[in-house]
Amino acid sequence: MPRKAVIAAAIFICLTLAVTGRAVWGTSRLQQTGEFGIAPGRSADSVWQQLAAEGYTPTVWPWRYTGWRTGAAARLQSGTYKLTAGERVRDVIARFTGGDVTDTALSVTFPEGFTAEQIAARTAAAGIGTPESYVAAATVGQWQDEFPFLASVPAGQSLEGFLFPDTYRLAQDDMPADVIRRQLGVFQRRAVDSGLAAEAAARGRSLAEWVTMASIVEREVISESDMAVVAGILWQRLDDGVGLAADATVRYAVGKWDGPLTVQDLAADSPYNTRRYRGLPPGPISNPGLRALTAAARPQPSDFYYYLSALDGQTIFSATLEEHNANKVKYLQ
């Protein structure tokens, strides 16, 4: 081949490679919008192939070239990325190496006083399991090895009372057991490791008794300052062998959290009905927050022996039954 022809062919090949390389380097773009996940430990080539398989790119070659050219192939970071149609390959790879991930965590709030069933429903509404799967996972015996503070609680009992109310950051692939583990972990830190459980024990209250009382206080009153007084009244009535007569326990027994209680409700034959049976109910009636747990561990002594919640939520205290009955007429009618 003549020397000039060889030179011309070489120039043509170089120009072709340069143009092709430039096209691959800068102008290839994503074909669709969506969320793309890179699992830990994935190789770069498997990521490029996944992009093609999911329809983000028609070919892996721009990705292989750019990853090799920039040295990015060895620096990809795991996570979930938000990809937008039209993005250039080099820009996407730069995000893959920079860890510009999308926050896909769920923020779920369980209010103070929620029952296990209410928590189960809200967990399921967030897309995590079903109410039934949450309730099935929320029994004491399944968690006693992992959380030894539960050792004194009957294994067959529900975790009602120990599912600490708070706002939790949950992953989309979490299971009900993952949620419960976080709730028990927060309970341990705030109620046990903090020394509150030890304070209750120093007063002669078992873990189950303390949490059960806190769960009643949580549902009986709104004001934090009133909680300690009500806890003092209820502990005193318990020690005196007098019925607690806490309406919140009746509501738990009949499953009626709203509206007035009827005569039939108040007479419900349930061990949770403290208007009918003396002593504490068999277990907590809600999941108390830190305020109620603190009140039950540090009850405030007073001369009061009765209380009621007025229609506006105010707690009205009285020392005698006569005064209490008069307050019923004054504040509830």
UniProtKB/TrEMBL annotation:
<keyword id="KW-0812">Transmembrane</keyword>
<dbReference type="Pfam" id="PF02618">
    <property type="entry name" value="YceG"/>
</dbReference>
<comment type="similarity">
    <text>Belongs to the transglycosylase MltG family.</text>
</comment>
<comment type="function">
    <text>Functions as a peptidoglycan terminase that cleaves nascent peptidoglycan strands endolytically to terminate their elongation.</text>
</comment>
<dbReference type="GO" id="GO:0071555">
    <property type="term" value="P:cell wall organization"/>
</dbReference>
<dbReference type="InterPro" id="IPR003770">
    <property type="entry name" value="MLTG-like"/>
</dbReference>
<dbReference type="GO" id="GO:0005886">
    <property type="term" value="C:plasma membrane"/>
</dbReference>
<keyword id="KW-0961">Cell wall biogenesis/degradation</keyword>
<feature type="site" description="Important for catalytic activity">
    <location>
        <position position="220"/>
    </location>
</feature>
<keyword id="KW-1133">Transmembrane helix</keyword>
<keyword id="KW-1003">Cell membrane</keyword>
<keyword id="KW-0456">Lyase</keyword>
<dbReference type="GO" id="GO:0008932">
    <property type="term" value="F:lytic endotransglycosylase activity"/>
</dbReference>
<keyword id="KW-0472">Membrane</keyword>
<protein>
    <recommendedName>
        <fullName>Endolytic murein transglycosylase</fullName>
        <ecNumber>4.2.2.29</ecNumber>
    </recommendedName>
</protein>
<dbReference type="GO" id="GO:0009252">
    <property type="term" value="P:peptidoglycan biosynthetic process"/>
</dbReference>
